[in-house]
Every structure is written in C-alpha cells, then in structure tokens.
C-alpha cells in the first residue's frame, strides 16, 4: 500500500485529534493554515472537504476568541488606555 504524500485532514499531525479548545493559539493557527493549504491545493472527497471546513471553522473561532482575550488582558494592563508605540512618552490615543 502506498503511503500518502499529501497533507490531507486524515494525514495531518496528531493536532487534528486534539479538541480545538485545548489548542494554543500558535498550534491552532498552524493547523488552520495547513488545512487551508490542503483545501486549496488538493481535490478532496466531499465528506473530507466538509470535515476539513468544519474543523477550520472551529479553529478560526478559537483563534479569534484567544485574540480577543489577549486584547482584553492588554487593555486591563494598560488600564484601558492604549498608547501608540511611536508616540512620545505620556501621549495617548
């Protein structure tokens, strides 16, 4: 039996078996990028494409949620005042 050479959802690393909620932002984003590349470059069977789309949607939502949480943490650290990095000391936007 020939070994698959492509990275279809069935042959992606073990990350695909981990619940999305348990993935770090970096791992989820990497898996999402891999899924998008696979879906763009390969002719996937319909059921495989649907499963990949579903997983990708879950990964996207998870990444967006983690980014929103990070933004809230930064805002809390800055006491609700975000400063431009290039602004002179003390100036806010």
Rounded to the nearest angstrom, the distance between the terminal CA atoms is 62 Å
Level-2 CATH architecture: Orthogonal Bundle
CATH topology: Helix Hairpins
Q: SSE order in H/E notation?
A: HH
Give the biggest beta sheet.
none
Low-confidence stretches: 1-12
Keywords: Cytoplasm, Exonuclease, Hydrolase, Nuclease
Protein name: Exodeoxyribonuclease 7 small subunit
Pfam family, one: Exonuc_VII_S
Function: Bidirectionally degrades single-stranded DNA into large acid-insoluble oligonucleotides, which are then degraded further into small acid-soluble oligonucleotides.
Keywords:
53% helix, mainly alpha, 93 residues, Helix Hairpins, disordered N terminus, elongated
Descriptive report:
- The N terminus is likely disordered.
- Helix 1 runs antiparallel to helix 2.
- The chain is built from two helices and no strands.
- It has a single domain, classed as Helix Hairpins, CATH 1.10.287.
- The protein has 93 residues and is an all-alpha fold.
Summarize the structure.
GO terms for molecular function: exodeoxyribonuclease VII activity. With 93 residues, this protein is an all-alpha fold. Helix content is 53%, strand content 0%.
């Amino acid at each position: 039996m020939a070994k698959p050479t492509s990275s279809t959802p069935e042959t992606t690393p073990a990350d695909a078996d981990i619940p999305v909620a348990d993935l770090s932002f970096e791992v989820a984003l990497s898996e999402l990028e891999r899924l998008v590349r696979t879906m763009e470059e390969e002719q996937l069977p319909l059921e495989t494409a649907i499963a990949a789309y579903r997983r990708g949607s879950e990964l996207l939502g998870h990444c967006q949620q983690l980014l929103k949480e990070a933004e809230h943490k930064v805002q809390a650290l800055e006491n609700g005042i975000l400063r431009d990095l290039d602004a002179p000391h003390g100036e806010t936007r």
